[in-house]
Amino acid sequence: MNSMNCSDMTGNETKIDRRRFLNRCWTLFGIAAVAEFGWLGLSFMNSRRERNRAFKTESIITAGPVEWFTPETVTAIPNGQFYLACLADGSLLALSRTCTHLGCSVPWDEEKRQFVCPCHGSTFNLIGEVLTAPAPRPLDTYPVRIENGIVKVNISTPQKRERFDKGQTARL
Amino acid sequence: MIPSSPKNRRFFTGFLLHLHPRTVPSETLRYSLSWGLGGMAALLVSLLFLTGTLLLLTYQPSTDSAYASILILIREVRFGLWVRNIHHWSANLLVIVAVLHLLRVVLTGAFGPGRRLNWIIGLFLLFLLLSANFTGYLLPWDQLAYWAVTICTSMLGYIPIGGLWLQELFRGGAEIGPATLANFYVLHVVFIPGTLFILMLWHFWLIRLAGGLVQVEKNSPEDVSVLRVPTVPNLIVREAAVGLALMAIVLVISIVWNAPLLEQANSGMSPNPAKAPWYFLGFQELLLHLHPVFVVFVWPLLGIAALFYLPFWHDSSLPTGVWFGSDPGRKLVAWTAAVGALATLVIILIDNLLLHSGEAVAVNILITRGLLPTVLLIALLVGFYFLLVTKLKHTRAEAVMAGLVLMLVALTVCTIIGVWFRGPEMRLVWPWVQQSL
Ligand code: HEM
Ligand code: FES
Asked: How far, in Å, from the CA of B38 to the mean position of ligand 1?
């Protein structure tokens, strides 16, 4: 007993040092393991991002000949999930039907001549500008091109915007 | 093999005693102390595990077949409809019971020293069971599910900096699709139940560690040896009575009312009105009035931080085991609840007029519908606190209790309005008008 108690301090100390060293190692390994699994999981999930895309059909949608669209009208293009708004001067604007507030699908109300969101009541005019909050910005647009009198819209990425300008439209 | 032979009995009670101490203070058996709410939550969780396992046998987690598999379940599987209903009603009741349980913990001073960690774990449990409810909501892939999830994942997008990344992570891409369903499925059947289970055991163990439920503080040290009674049968029969009664109620509710199921999800048409599940309708009400960044980020962050910090604020917990702390405390709560409910209602009605009277799109909406209301709310709470503590001579704990009751009442009023008084395009309507639509 006695000899144990007064056994050389150095021996005891190295013992504790060794223990402390090993404990640190285990902690390190533990952290490394958590980090690895975290990284593994995140990469796994990130790589699936494109999976939902396969859903979408094509990115270039043919909406029809220009003559179909008369000034001051809004036409729904269901296979592209957007609207073609024809302005007073006959220029065309492709509007996403996704509300900029929280993503509901916005129908065109012909009577009120507004887009009215069913979810929180945001309204937008014919060119997609916000008339009533809570929507924070105008409806997104898609680039429109007119080739040989045929209207084509590229729906690969919606364009966010703060306000309307002529550059978002296309004319013959 | 006589079922109640002493040996069998010991085998059975031995298991129960792993969850319970051998004896409990007789005072904590009083039903009006805890209302058995935590036990009810535990029972509902068990029902959810049970019915959930059954549902897994028929449900198919893919966007093409999920909806059809639910139809088959409720039309062709024997008792399928009932099982789905039990799962649905248990989940919804659980939200109510857990919030009431939280309220009881607040009102009986049960989050103070010795119980701090358990309060934190309780908060995680609350978060988990809300997540479980919400992820389960998507699985039927009907209109209700699809649009509720569209709205709620869009809400994530407003979180500054990491928001869009989070949104894409949960959706498994920019849009809602098969990857979203896969994500929610795994969360709902593996991740959340697993975590919930572990945390629940921890929650129970910590109650034991704290020496049981809260009790009225004793004056003399001798009193510490309060009357203790054996857990079996005293506590067990009470738990069984509450549990069995609640189970009977859930089963009957599930016979009478069916869980909702709309048409199959249609990404082209939002139902009008498109509402979030009821326990998020308080937030949806706020969304009508405030800038989204504040509703989905700033306010929840402030609220959560406050709830987490609460037990570490010195003397913020009431005297233990006495409802409302004292008689003045009881009156204070009644007044706060009444005034809070009225004030919330009035504010909503006034702002509703403002919203529809041309104020339309203010340029600095971030300030008028964000910063300003936030500062006002904080000023109101701080003012309320000092009024109570300095002028009306309430204790800090009583003021804290009043503040929590005020917030909870406001959220409840918002939720009630969201559920019954919001019609097409989220305009205010009377419930009976809504019915006839
Ligand atoms: C899945 C959800 C939950 C379950 C199953 C559960 C279960 C329980 C049970 C069985 C008790 C024993 C006393 C009683 O029956 O009231 C209890 C006590 C307690 N719970 Fe929970 N609970 C849950 C959620 C929460 C939440 C959301 C909070 C608050 C943030 C919370 C905080 C506490 C505290 C502090 C105690 C100790 C109370 C005391 O000592 O008197 N729990 N819980
Ligand atoms: S999603 Fe359109 S107003 Fe909220």
From this structure: 5
A111 shares a domain with A92: yes
E strand or H helix that includes residue B230? strand B228-230
> What average pLDDT does this structure show over B251-264?
88
| DSSP class of A49 | G
Tell me the domains of chain B and their CATH numbers: 18-217+230-268 (1.20.810.10), 272-437 (no CATH)
Q: Which atom of ligand 1 is nearest to the CA of B39?
A: 10
- pLDDT-above-90 percentage for chain B: 35
Please state, in angstroms and rounded to a whole number, the distance separating the CA atoms of residues B115 and B292. Answer: 35
List the structure tokens of B271. 């139902």
Are A101 and A145 contained in the same domain? yes
Tokens 């300003």 belong to B372
- CA B171, B172, B174, B178 torsion-angle sign: negative
Q: What are B200's two structure tokens?
A: 């629940």
CB distance B24 to B212 below 8 Å: yes
Contact B334, B406 (CB under 8 A): no
Task: Read off the DSSP letter of residue B422.
Answer: B
**ipTM score here?**
0.71
CATH code (residue A161) = 2.102.10.10
| Residues pairing with A82 in the sheet | A77, A96
CA distance linking residue B28 with residue B321, whole number of Å: 9
Q: Which of B170, B183, B270 to mutate to test the interface with A (most CBs of A within 10 A)?
A: B270
Q: What is the mean pLDDT of residues B292-306?
A: 89
Across A21-35, A144-158, B106-120, least confident range: A144-158
Q: Which of B425, B427, B428 to mutate to test the interface with A (most CBs of A within 10 A)?
A: B425
Regarding whether A163 and A95 lie in a shared domain, the answer is: yes
Q: Distance between CA B17 and CA B22 in Å, rounded?
A: 6
- Contact list, A114 vs chain B (CB under 8 Å): none
Q: Which structural domain, as residue segments, surrounds residue A45?
A: 3-57
A146 and A113 fall within a common domain = yes
Q: How far is CA B239 from the centre of its chain?
A: 22
From start to end of chain A, where are the E strands?
A: 60-65, 73-77, 82-86, 92-96, 108-109, 114-116, 123-124, 130-132, 141-142, 144-147, 150-154
Cα–Cα separations (whole angstroms), residue A5 to A8, A11, A19, A143? 9, 12, 19, 85
B164 touches chain A (CB under 8 A): no
In 10 A of CB B308, how many CB atoms?
Answer: 13
- What contacts A141, CB < 8 A, 6 or more positions away? A93, A94, A95, A96, A128, A158, A159, A161, A168
φ and ψ at residue A85, rounded to 5 degrees: -100, 130
pLDDT, position B406: 92
Residue A124 burial (10 A CB sphere; 0-12, 13-18, 19+): buried
| CA dist., res. B270 & res. B249, Å (int) | 35
Residue with tokens 């305009």: B427
